[in-house]
Amino acid sequence: MNSLKFFHFGMQCPYNQRLIELLNEVCPTTDFTLQIFDIAENPQLCRTYQIYGPNLLIVDDHYRWNGPFSRDVLVALLRDEKPVRSAYHIQIGATEFKGHLLELNDSSVAYTSYACFMKDDHALCQAKAEWVRQILQKTGLQHMGYLNMDGERCVGGAEFLPAELVPYPIPGLRQNDAFITCSFLTHEDHDYKSFPLRTLLAFLKSSGFGRALMVASTEVLFPNGTVAWYCERGFSDLGHLAYEETEHADMHLLEYVF
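Below the sequence we write its predicted structure tokens.
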């Protein structure tokens, strides 16, 4: 069949622009047919392919790779090799880190270059910054969450959108729902996530949202961490959404009611 389909949620993930460039560079030298879809513009694709993350590569309508991929991984897939991904487990640190919080906007999002790429190169987040600017302009929001800063480096954060802007096939959406698109960074030594998440939930409540929704998995870190960790922080488990075999991820929908 020799087909590649790449699905991305706008530039919600800072990697998306780099992945698109990599695909457009490598695939024309092969006999693979490449199709690239922005799911923000076509939620039906999310229902058809059961997409619950900001980027997904499907090889020959069968093998699914969620998240960023390297050139080596892409070349292996084009050779019909199917990399086996181990279940990704990390026990998040018990020591909560409370750094300086920044509101996540089109200027501050540049600091996520360290959390996402482990590089202090703000240019890596230029496409995401433009995406954030457009979202803020469209919605009238002042920001999209909070960044947990350690000096000049972002080490954690919580990002949200009004749920009607999220293309994922979430059952039972209500008009005043918020959706947490990203809760990061999971680390063995420190808890970088709780402080910005708690602050975001308080902001959403004061802003008139009725509840916050998000997707987490029962055992592995994809896409945002484990169900149990969020339930310990006041979320409720609304049940199974989908299973990603490559990631070993039994994904559930969670809610936090204000």
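The domain at 3-78 is CATH 3.40.30.10 (Glutaredoxin).
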